[in-house]
């Protein structure tokens, strides 16, 4: 039941009684003054106090809307003021005779003011009442708090956590500053190498604020933030304002990143959490669409995101790239968050690597734990809480020297001393009696390696076996998984098989003639599943690790000991270890038993393919995750061919046919797919495992190149493409060599390496001619022509396009024109001159003689071809404007005619999204240029007879329709290497229609894509387009854009833009003649 009405009534009663209390007090004080008599010197002061009380009473009465109290208070106050007049006049005349004559008038003014105040109360009471009574406009309802989203967060240390008070305060200030809007750091990085306690620091900070359980809901805004918890009686905690409702996040999402997972799983989990759609299985492939989803679901929330262990998604190679994010989604997420477009929130990141993408930004602040070592008193407390209480000051300093103040090393030392030395530091050297050759690594790691070496002589055989087994997993491990590996009798394999999917029943014998109907159906179902594919089955012996089996009791005892020692962490139903501890025990096993790691990986491969994921072809990213782990372990076990065929190809991709590539086509999981492919490489991205067949090695190189290119990692994509070309040439596989050379040419073009693109394109033509494959001869000629076009050699490009079309007519007479990507490239050549002419026409510069107006039709194509042939022979990059606008308009019409026909073919046979989108883009460009060249009245497809649209709206409608289809189609196809082209065209259309903000938004998005992918040609296009569209608004910015465009054009040899850039420079710098 709501308590608001009663609360309001109590409040009104309280305030109303205050007015009458003032009246009673006024009467009491006035009565006291009267008892003194008029001659007593105290009386004036008492009556003055009564007058003040009366004015306060009037105020309360008006505030409480108590008319009677207001009248009584006003009359009483006026009466007391009249009583004060003689005293005031005597006082003033004695001391200030000059003003004694005006005193009565001053008193009259004072009384008049009081009377006016009373009249306002009387006659404007309703208006005042409406002002006072009207409740504040209801606040917009806050979104319902979401349950806490913890994925991979460790268990709490609670009162065993030591130090980091300064870091807690800085995190508190970051959150408070975000809430108040005073902080410019909505992203905080907790940065340090392994073992400094980054994760537990952030987890402890959340615990201090009351966020305990994964299934908990954040406190609602009415409850306020829970107060911090005292961790230790000797350490004080800052007390927040627990009653402030504005300091509460309504959503908290924690994600611990895991190797091999890729950012796809994170992106899906994040959107699923904020949309509260647990069934979500796929996101749009385009980054801007993904960000739009997040803006939709996060825009009105107050959130806290924790990205734990982000180094998994960062570049680890030394150099300028160190620390950069590999994932476009993560990069865009942090940019959108910093710009405030995802609601109000704080992002906390833990990482071993610097956040290079954020460094230098005023929206980012870093806490470097390596520069903030634990102090001596904190180390004493850590040792005490871990059970080490006996040590001298000298021994303490010795332990500090051994540990280097590294928190994980100190905790490991404490665990060993508490377990094996009775909690005393005395005689600690007994564990360090061997000369330790620490492996290469960070100095803090070397401290840890030295201490972990102590365990070699301390752990018993069972404990060592458990540690080395767990160390080869990449994720927290369940007890039943260990049972399969170490305690086969506890694994209940037979029961698992009885309850597994029918694929496991393939060994059921054929029933005899006396079998029941149920037995026959069971056998038939097994045969069907066997024919369509099934997960493998393994005997307990095939799953068990070499060596004597353990008992269940021995396994549990070993696990308890290792948890007590601090080498393992138990989280609910799983066991995990720190990454550095895992690395030590992996290295230890490899040193003692060369075959040991492969034996473990072989069993883990079988475990993941048969037990952890028994479904042959599971759905969704979560279903595929065990299979991705199986690919990793299979490759580590040397089972490359089996892993590729049985797991990656058949179960993850589901083949490569029309229904294949499930993980990328259906789920859009390009990053997870690329991480899986990397397992087959010895040296990313060139050396594919020699254990694979030659065709499979070539195929994997192509897959790696495709995945890297799809993710915008273009420079990395060149490695597998180049390796694939070398392999094909070595094998004299000229068709695949032509494919690789053509792909390299297009990749070089995207990266702005035009000279290399021309060279690779020429090699592609050579290899294709050697192969004799007609289709490759056509495709490589268009790739080479495209490179020549961008280099400014339009005549040579046109000749190659024509030769390619001749080949097309020979191969497919029913489709006599270049189509798909080849047709798009040819259309781009045809529209090159029209694009330049359209802008010149739009600024009214150098109107060519014989300009065609709105009512004039374009000349016949034959005339245009003659004109075009002349200017190409003359070596001009673009049509001479003395020839009129006939040629560029004719080119628009020709491009339109070709794209209209190829679009019809594409839609008829159901080709790829990319092909359809590129046709729409050609139609949009041709329509835009033609409309501009014709004064705005012509259209990509001229209005038909009977068209009810006005002439001036028909072209815009046609262009808009094609542009929408182009942009959306390219987004859906996930082709970031073509999307900027459509955004540039749409920016031009929007600018023409007066939508400057929309045009600038398109240019900004295109720039983001080009900048992420190091696409120098697109960057030059964007700068040139921005200058041409907005030079009237900001000439200084336009000049700077043209200066930068000039640098890029000359750097990349992008001579296609020479004429357009020269035109823009003349207009912007004011040197042209109208």
TrEMBL record:
SUPFAM superfamilies referenced in this protein's UniProt entry, alphabetically: P-loop containing nucleoside triphosphate hydrolases, TPR-like
Entry keywords, A to Z: Membrane, Transmembrane, Transmembrane helix
Region annotated Disordered, chain positions: 213-249
Keyword Lyase assigned: no
InterPro entries (UniProt xref): P-loop_NTPase, TPR-like_helical_dom_sf
Chain segments annotated as transmembrane: 18-36, 42-61, 68-88, 103-124
Top-level taxon: Bacteria
Entry-linked PANTHER family: HTH-TYPE TRANSCRIPTIONAL REGULATOR RV0890C-RELATED (PTHR47691:SF3), REGULATOR-RELATED (PTHR47691)
Name of the protein in its database record: AAA ATPase domain-containing protein
Protein species of origin: Candidatus Kentrum sp. FW
């Amino acid at each position: 039941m709501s308590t608001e009405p009663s609360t309001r009534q109590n409040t009104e009663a309280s305030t109303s009684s205050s007015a009458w209390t003032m009246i009673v007090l006024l009467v009491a004080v006035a009565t006291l003054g009267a008892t003194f008599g008029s001659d007593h010197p105290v009386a004036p002061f008492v009556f003055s106090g009564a007058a003040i009380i009366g004015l306060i009473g009037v105020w309360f009465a008006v505030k409480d809307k108590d008319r009677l109290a207001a009248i009584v208070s006003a009359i009483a106050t006026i009466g007391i003021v009249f009583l004060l007049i003689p005293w005031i006049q005597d006082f003033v005349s004695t001391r200030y005779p000059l003003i004694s004559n005006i005193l009565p008038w001053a008193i009259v003014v004072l009384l008049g003011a009081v009377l006016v105040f009373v009249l306002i109360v009387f006659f404007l009471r309703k208006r005042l009442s409406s002002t006072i009574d009207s409740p504040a406009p209801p606040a917009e309802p806050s979104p319902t708090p979401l349950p806490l989203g913890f994925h991979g967060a460790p268990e709490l240390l609670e009162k065993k956590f030591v130090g980091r008070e300064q870091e807690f305060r800085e995190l508190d200030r970051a959150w408070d500053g975000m809430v108040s809007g005073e902080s410019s750091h909505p992203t905080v990085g907790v940065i340090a190498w392994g073992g400094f306690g980054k994760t537990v620091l952030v987890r402890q900070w959340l615990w201090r604020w009351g966020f305990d359980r994964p299934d908990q809901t954040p406190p609602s805004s009415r409850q306020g933030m829970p107060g911090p918890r005292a961790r230790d009686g000797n350490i004080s905690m800052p007390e927040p304002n627990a009653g402030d409702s504005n300091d509460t996040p309504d959503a908290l999402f924690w994600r611990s990143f895991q190797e091999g997972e890729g950012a796809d799983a994170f992106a899906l989990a994040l959107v699923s959490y904020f949309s509260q759609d647990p069934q979500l299985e796929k996101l749009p492939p385009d980054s801007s669409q993904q960000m739009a989803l997040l803006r939709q679901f996060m825009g009105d929330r107050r959130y806290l995101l924790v990205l734990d262990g982000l180094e998994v998604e960062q570049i680890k190679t030394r150099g300028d790239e160190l620390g950069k994010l590999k994932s476009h989604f993560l990069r865009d997420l942090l940019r959108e968050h910093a710009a405030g477009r995802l609601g109000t929130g704080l992002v906390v990141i833990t990482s071993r690597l610097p956040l290079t993408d954020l460094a230098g930004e005023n929206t980012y602040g870093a806490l470097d734990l390596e520069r903030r070592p634990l102090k001596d008193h904190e180390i004493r407390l850590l040792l005490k809480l871990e059970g080490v209480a006996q040590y001298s000051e000298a021994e303490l300093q010795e332990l500090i020297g051994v540990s280097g103040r590294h928190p994980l090393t100190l905790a490991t030392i404490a665990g060993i001393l508490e377990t094996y030395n009775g909690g005393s530091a005395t005689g600690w050297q007994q564990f360090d009696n061997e000369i330790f050759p620490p492996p290469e690594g960070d100095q803090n790691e070397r401290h840890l390696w030295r201490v972990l070496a102590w365990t070699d002589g301390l752990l018993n055989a069972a404990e060592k076996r458990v540690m080395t087994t767990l160390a080869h997993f990449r994720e927290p491990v369940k007890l039943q998984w260990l049972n399969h590996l170490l305690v086969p009798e506890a694994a209940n394999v037979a029961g698992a098989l009885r309850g597994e999917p029918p694929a496991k029943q393939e060994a059921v014998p054929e029933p005899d003639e006396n079998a029941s109907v149920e037995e026959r159906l069971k056998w038939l179902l097994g045969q069907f599943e066997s024919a369509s594919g099934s997960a493998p089955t393994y005997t307990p012996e095939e799953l068990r690790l070499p060596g004597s089996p353990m008992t269940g009791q021995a396994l549990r005892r070993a696990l308890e000991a290792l948890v007590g020692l601090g080498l393992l962490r138990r989280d609910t139903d799983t066991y995990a270890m720190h990454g550095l501890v895992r690395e030590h025990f992996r290295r230890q096993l490899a040193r003692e038993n060369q075959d040991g790691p492969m034996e473990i990986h072989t069993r883990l491969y079988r475990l993941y393919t048969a037990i952890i994921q028994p479904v042959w072809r599971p759905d969704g990213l979560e279903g595929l995750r065990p299979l991705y782990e199986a690919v990793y372990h299979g490759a580590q076990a040397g089972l490359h061919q089996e892993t590729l065929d049985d797991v990656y190809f058949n179960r993850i991709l589901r083949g490569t046919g029309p229904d294949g590539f499930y993980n990328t086509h259906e789920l859009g999981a390009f990053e997870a797919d690329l991480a899986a492919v990397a397992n087959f490489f010895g040296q990313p991205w060139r050396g594919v495992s020699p254990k694979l067949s030659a065709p499979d090695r070539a195929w994997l190189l192509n897959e790696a190149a495709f995945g890297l290119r799809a993710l915008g990692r273009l420079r990395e994509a060149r490695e597998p493409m180049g390796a694939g070309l070398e392999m094909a040439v070595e094998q004299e596989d000229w068709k695949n060599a032509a494919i690789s050379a053509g792909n390299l040419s297009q990749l070089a073009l995207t990266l702005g390496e035009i000279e290399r693109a021309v060279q690779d394109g020429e090699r592609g033509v050579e290899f294709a001619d050697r192969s004799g494959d007609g289709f490759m001869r056509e495709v490589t000629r268009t790739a080479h022509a495209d490179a020549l076009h961008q280099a400014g050699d339009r005549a040579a490009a046109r000749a190659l396009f024509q030769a390619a079309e001749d080949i097309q007519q020979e191969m497919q007479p029913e489709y006599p024109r270049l189509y798909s990507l080849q047709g798009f490239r040819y259309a781009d050549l045809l529209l090159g001159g029209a694009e330049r002419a359209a802008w010149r026409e739009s600024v009214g510069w150098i109107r060519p003689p014989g300009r065609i107006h709105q009512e004039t039709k374009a000349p016949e194509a034959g005339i245009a071809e003659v004109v075009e042939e002349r200017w190409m022979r003359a070596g001009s990059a673009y049509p001479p404007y003395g020839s009129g606008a006939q040629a560029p308009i004719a080119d628009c019409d020709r491009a339109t005619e070709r794209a209209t026909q190829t679009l019809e073919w594409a839609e008829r046979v159901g080709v790829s999204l990319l092909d359809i989108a590129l046709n729409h883009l050609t139609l949009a460009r041709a329509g835009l240029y033609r409309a501009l060249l014709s004064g705005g009245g012509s259209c990509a497809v001229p209005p038909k007879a009977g068209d009810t649209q006005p002439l001036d709206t028909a072209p815009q409608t046609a262009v808009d329709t094609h542009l929408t289809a182009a942009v959306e189609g390219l987004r859906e196809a996930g082709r970031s290497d073509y999307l900027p082209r459509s955004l540039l065209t749409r920016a031009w259309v929007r600018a023409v229609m007066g939508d400057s903000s929309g045009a600038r938004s398109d240019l900004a998005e295109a720039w983001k894509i080009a900048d992420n992918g190091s696409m120098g040609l697109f960057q030059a296009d964007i700068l040139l387009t921005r200058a041409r569209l907005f030079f009237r608004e900001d000439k200084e910015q336009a000049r700077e854009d043209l200066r930068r465009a000039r640098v890029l054009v000359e750097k990349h040899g992008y001579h296609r833009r020479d004429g357009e850039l020269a035109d823009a420079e003349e207009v912007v710098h004011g040197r042209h003649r109208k």
